[in-house]
Amino acid sequence: MAGERIEIQRGLRDDLVTTLSRELLGPFEGPSEALRQRPTGRYLLGRLAPAGTAVSQEEDEGASDSSAEDDTSDSGYASPISMSMNPSSIGLSFTVDLDVATVEVTAEWGSYAEEKRDFVRKDGRIRKDNAWVREQHIHTLAMAIGESGRCTVEDGIDVQWLCRALPDGRRCAVSVFLVNRVQSKNPDRPDDSEWLFQPRLSVRHHEGSGVFLSRSLDDVVDFDSLDPDRRADELLFRHRPEYAVGHGCAADWVADGGLGATQVSTVILPVHELARIDPRSSDNPGLDMRRLGGAGAEGVSGDQLREWLSPLAKAYGDWIEELAGQVAGLDDRLHLQAGQHLEECRVVHRRIEEGIRLLSDTGNEASELARRAFCFANRAMALQRSRSEAALRRRRGEPVEDPDEIEAVWRPFQIAFVMMNLPPLVDRAHPDRETCDLLWFPTGGGKTEAYLGLTAFVLALRRIREPVSGHRVGGGVGVLMRYTLRLLTLQQFQRAATLACACELLRASEGGWGDEPFSVGVWVGSNSTPNHYSYPNGYPSEGAKEAIANWAEGNRVRGGTPAQLLNCPWCGAQLGPGQYRADDEHEMVRIFCSDDHCDFAPGNGLGLDGIPAHTVDEQVYRHTPSLIIATVDKFAQMAWNGRVQSLFGRVQRRCDRHGYISTGENHPGSHFADRRKRWDAAEVVDVDPFEPPDLVIQDELHLISGPLGTLVGLYETAVDGLASLEVDGRRRVPKIVASTATIRRAVQQVDSLFRRSVTVFPPAGLDSADSWFGAEVPPDQDPGRLYVGVFAPGKSVKTSLVRVCAALLSKAKRQHRDHPDAADAYMTLVGYFNSLRELGGAVRLAEDDIPGRIEVLARRPGAILHSATSMSAKS
Questions:
Q1: Cα–Cα distances in Å, from 628 out to 310, 426, 455, 477, 496?
Q2: Could you read off the pLDDT of 104-138 as tens digits, one per residue?
Q3: How far apart are the C-alpha atoms of 279 and 289, rounded to whole Å?
Q4: Is the dihedral of CA 600, 601, 606, 608 positive or negative?
């Protein structure tokens, strides 16, 4: 059944691509179609205008911005497209041996001429009307290699080629173009009959031989002078040669098993399926979280941990040595690069082994503490994994089994990443403490769980080790987890809250993990969460207390809301206004589960004070949650909000009623009892500061670029300083861990942001398809991600957006009617935008233009698309 479902989904996806091609490129009705509208307005792609034709002013959506008086506004657009020309040619470049005398070039395109045609009306009657009738043009000619030239295949239509011998003396680089040089009667607005549509160039050898050679960077520049990323790509993708490159379009080829390509051609609407990278699975029972965690606060012995974890390190080491035996068979220029990759793998292998030794050594105090914290982290992660899955099933209305029966097993790359980071987290003087470990794995592979495991380890370790002189342990912020987007931050808050619940449950049931509760706090902008518990009447914004009251009464909440958890992270029960309780005495919002059987419901037997989550800034400062989830821009508060220092352990006093007080907050020296409200008297006492955070996690590192990266880099100096600790006269910095889905220029980015060296995990081997921790799944076995390139020069971004969205949404609606389960994913269309202006424009398009365009598609004779009357645009 799974295979049948995959084939249905693949067919639906191919159908969507076909729809895009017919709608945007054409011909919609076949080679001899007759259009009722001008082809320049009908088709978006593959249009070649007569040379020198300027882009129409009506397509210049950024023209009004260029004349605006306020030059500080962000228009989100580059220079006006009316300053450019419509494309009049497409082409491609390739290389062949000089021994090849000639190749065949086939140029094809469609042209449209206006004439009268018979059309069948809805009532069955035939009516003559104007139509644009398509004519197919195909020309094949022989092109001599080694000579540049030009051939006029029709009046004003040229095929032109350029040939250049390469420095090696045996190869020739060739570029061939199809050019529209028709002399227009009206150069400012050429007639549609003077344009070329659906153009294509293909080149082959007359005997069908594989004469087209793979393109090499040596043709352009010396290999050793390339930047490290390009050299690495040459090694990793050496089995995926490039035989041609397009000009004004993409290129495609037919390869003959690696010896060369038998044909190269242009592609107007390129489609590429990117194979999925799946994390390696393991049948090693030693990677079970429950087994690694053991039972009770002491966990399991070091010998047991060595027995369970060593097979992973050995298998990885054997793989590295296997790769070493393959280096001799590589091209000479790749030997040095391959050696660098293997050394990076060996460094990671040594660090994994060091982590295993740390956990398994006996008679060593640091090892004993690390082992206890590691076992605690595994018990917490097992609870987090099983409870998250059970809660998800409950929210979906699916049967919920016993959470203890749900599998909780580490993927090899996750536990390996945890192991290699244990030594620098335990030893502040460890040289790897100042290295940023960058976790690089495709989206959905499990990166979050890997650094949640590190989080649980750090939180446990802080509760049992000796504090640095003048500081306290047992509380304070241990981990700062940062994101670039508020949406990502709030999404991850649910998972982090489940981990906080797991840690708090273990603290309450096992003992030995301190008196301060484990908790998580979210620290984002005031539009998402309130800055204060309450505001005076008439204040333009709302505090958490007022937001809860308005929510309960069904009124609109102005500003942020503390209700960032709509379901209990522990059991999945729905949370409503009744579960968010405003506590005036302690000036905080407490969150309780609505299910009386949940451990985090009121009156549970473990003494837990509700769900350990803080969603109000004021609460976060006063209760110093163990884990802070924040956006990077929120740290700009450091410049003018003195209370932020409490997040770095810099608390000065503690109030029995309100929590910790930093020097940045004015607070009374004590509080009288209030018998009417039944509030007890409260004292405010001086306390030592907490140790600053030990771990900084930066998720989605690749999003910190451009102006945002510049500002984050500036604030990072302050974050690094505040999170550092002086030990034995030396400054010890926090450990930084980052995750990303792309590692282009990672070394430079990490250096610019954090001024740290970087270790990429998992390190690349000798092939992009296999890093041992993850392997590529061939698309013919399981579909990967399909990418389609839409390039519409001469048309505005808005026009392109409307056309693409309308075609995909309407076709998906028709598919959903026939295959509701398989097509469900295509009913959601996600868009990303570079500026608020672009986003605002897209919202208007989704409300007006896109539904209107769908109606146009539905009214066409033989329409394959669906009407918009049963669809709604939601933005």
A1: 33, 20, 11, 7, 9
A2: 999 999 999 998 877 766 666 777 778 899 999 99
A3: 17
A4: positive
